[in-house]
Amino acid sequence: MLRRSETHSRFPGYYDVMVGGAVNVGESYEEAAARELSEELGVRVPVRFMFKFLCREGISPVWFGVHEAVVSEHLVPDPGEIGWQDWLTLDELRDVIDQWCFVPGGREALRRYLESGSGSGAGELAG
């Protein structure tokens, strides 16, 4: 779980379970997800594609490619992107999904992830 920095250009201070950004020209969703994990959390790990969906909430319709990664190394969050981060269990995530102020795409991705039954509790979601 992370909270975006208060200086973030979109949804400052909102909670999210994903790190992510735009896919560069010629870059796959998987390459972009791995790059974003490295840029925002300072970890270099393989990612596994979970699903793709069109999010119509938030700023505008945007495609999300959701990936899962097993992260065992120490996180080094980029303070320009992330103001706080901590690990939550799947039960804790279910408890806060409708209570905390979430980034709309992150909330929808988390719901879809939990409904898929794929969450093992050991993964990190990366958009």
From TrEMBL:
Domain of life from the UniProt record: Bacteria
UniProt keyword annotation of Hydrolase present: yes
Keyword vocabulary terms for this entry: Hydrolase
Keyword NADP annotated: no
Pfam families assigned: NUDIX
Nudix hydrolase domain span: 1-114
Record-given protein name: 8-oxo-dGTP pyrophosphatase MutT (NUDIX family)
